[in-house]
Specification:
Oligomer: single chain
Number of domains: 1
Number of helices: 7
Order of helices and strands: HHHHHHH
Largest sheet: none
Structural class: mainly alpha
Strand content: under 5%
Distance between the termini: 21 Å
Helix content: over 70%
């Protein structure tokens, strides 16, 4: 925010004669910037949602489950998928609501409160997605182990070697889940981390004005 830094310098130079006007200008700039950041968060959330919808449509999971004779599980998977989409839509609505509230805020204290609320919502959204990634991977391994014929050799190996093979298999699953989780966390850190830092910087600047 180079404009804000320049405005603050000008504010200090003219502190005695223009303090009130300059403080108001700084607030307006922080307000505008915060509104833009929250709007970008909402847009990214929508794009991400549409991306995963597209992946789901092209992957054709129903055909995969039917091929493995998992018709009895198909219904539960659909319910789980629709529930997940409903939760994501709820988060997008919260992003939109935060954007509207921040855009119409005319109080420093309220803006600070809404910035913290937005950051908290985004953090919950990220942790929810990471939790779903871990849950989906573990569930996928379990279903593949019990239903996918390609895992027949793995099951025979485990039955033959006993606890040693079980621990080895669990170790592989944990390693794969761990790698995907770390990569996903880095993705969200890159995607939302920069925006969260900007919001926090705005919050810190508002604290100085509010004092």
């Amino acid at each position: 925010m180079k404009e804000l830094d320049l405005l603050k310098k000008d504010w200090k130079k003219n502190e005695n004669s223009f303090q009130q006007v300059s403080e108001n200008d700084i607030y307006k700039m922080i307000h505008k910037n915060s509104s833009s950041v929250v709007r970008l968060i909402m847009i990214i959330g929508i794009i991400e949602f549409l991306f995963w919808i597209g992946i789901s449509l092209f992957s054709n999971n129903d055909e995969y489950f039917q091929k493995l004779n998992m018709d009895n599980i198909l219904l539960y998977m659909r319910i789980l998928t629709y529930a997940h989409y409903a939760i994501i839509v709820t988060f997008i609505y919260l992003f939109y609501k935060n954007y509207i509230v921040i855009s119409t805020t005319d109080s420093t204290k309220i803006l600070m409160k809404n910035i913290l609320k937005t950051r908290r919502t985004v953090n919950i959204y990220v942790w929810y997605n990471l939790g779903m990634i871990i849950f989906s991977l573990i569930l996928g391994f379990m279903l593949a182990y019990f239903y996918n014929p390609d895992f027949a050799l793995v099951k025979e190996k485990i039955e033959h070697d006993g606890i040693k093979a079980i621990l080895f298999f669990i170790g592989i699953v944990i390693a794969i889940v761990g790698v995907f989780t770390v990569v996903s966390w880095l993705f969200y850190k890159l995607l939302y981390g920069f925006l969260m830092k900007k919001l926090y910087k705005n919050y810190e600047e508002l604290k100085k004005i509010d004092l």
